[in-house]
Amino acid sequence: MKIRQRHYARTTHHGGFSLIEFMVAMVLGIIVIAGAVSVYLASTRSLTEVDQVAGISENGQFALQLISYSAKHVGFFGGVYHEDIVKDGSLNTSITNDCTGDAAAYNTGESLMAMTVGADNLAYGCITDARENTDVLVIKNVIPAPIAADPNDSTGNTFPSGEIDVKTTYLVANSEAGMLVDGADSMPSIGTGTSYALANAWPYNVEVYYIRDSAIPTLSRMVLTWDGSGMAMQRQDLVQGVEDMRFLFGFDTGVDGTADAVAADPNDVGSSGWDQATSMQAYILMRAENDDYDYTNEKTYTLGDRTVTPNDTFRRVLLHADITLRNPRIVLRGGAS
């Protein structure tokens, strides 16, 4: 019996996507990619905003710390009352770019002053580039790093050799009297029985804080320092991005050491009123150095009694500090006015 073998051909079927399936897959892929890109861009914008705000806040806190530290030492003259301070006969009062009037560097009658800058960008005769409608703050004191009598001098009449800086102005003061002296000149005798017995030599300090009107507004200050040939009021740029600054003061009109009145505008305070200032509110409006075209700032910022609505593309942060003017308060509580 003959057996027939049948051979069956194997047929291979090749599968694939139809045009419709391909298009659906492509659309879904585009949606997924677009979602991922959207999330990435949103995260990037959020990170940029967080970084900008954090940087602005950090700079603002530093600016407030500088002003607060200076303000807390305003009127400190080593224990002597400011009206008992005199000038040494050899003191060179020709200070380059000195401020004028009560703001003059060696005028210790006023240790605190403030004003609002007008359209001319001028302030106190020593500032020509201040930002319009911002406040300027004048502070005078001594640096708390006194030089005491030379312990090796048995008479106690002199200060240690080499510690007096010839490029610094000093206030030689005890609790009864004080004298402004050039470091290059002879110091007064501080021995027993003299007017300046047991006095210390305190480095004298003058600072005028203001906002410099530049492409990036900058917190600057004029300081009393050596310019190579003599004493001068010279500018120091401190913090970029400080756009606006406002100061409000509490005044002790009852002369009991407690603030009971607030001046809304520093320009309204007469020269006699600054002696009664015992507290201060400082407002600083910080602005990012670069604008962000994906952001529109329509916020309104309140700086004490004044409001600002920028309506631009810069991010901003408003900071505020309450500062006690300790030395003027102590003087008023002690009965001096």
Q: Compute the separation of the termini in Å.
A: 141 Å
* Assembly status: single chain
Percent of residues in helices:
10-25%
Average pLDDT score: 87
Primary descriptors:
29% strand, elongated, 4-stranded antiparallel beta sheet, 337 residues, 8-stranded mixed beta sheet, alpha+beta
Summary of the model, kept short:
The protein is α+β, with helices and mostly antiparallel strands. Helix content is 18%, strand content 29%.
Explain what you see:
The chain has 337 residues and is α+β, with helices and mostly antiparallel strands. The chain has one domain. Helix content is 18%, strand content 29%. It has helices at 19-72, 326-333, and strands spanning 85-87, 112-116, 135-142, 169-173, 178-182, 200-212, 218-226, 231-240, 242-251, 261-263, 277-287, 301-303, 306-308, 316-324. The strands form three sheets. Strands 1, 2, 3, 4, 5, 6, 7 and 8 form an eight-stranded mixed beta sheet that branches. A hairpin with a 2-residue loop joins strand 12 (301-303) and strand 13. The longest helix has 54 residues, at 19-72. The protein is elongated, with a radius of gyration of 33 Å. The model has no long low-confidence stretch (mean pLDDT 87).
Question: How is this fold's topology laid out?
Answer:
Blueprint: H1 19-72, E1 85-87, E2 112-116, E3 135-142, E4 169-173, E5 178-182, E6 200-212, E7 218-226, E8 231-240, E9 242-251, E10 261-263, E11 277-287, E12 301-303, E13 306-308, E14 316-324, H2 326-333
Parallel strand pairs: 1-5
Antiparallel strand pairs: 2-3, 3-6, 4-5, 4-6, 6-7, 7-8, 9-10, 9-11, 11-14, 12-13
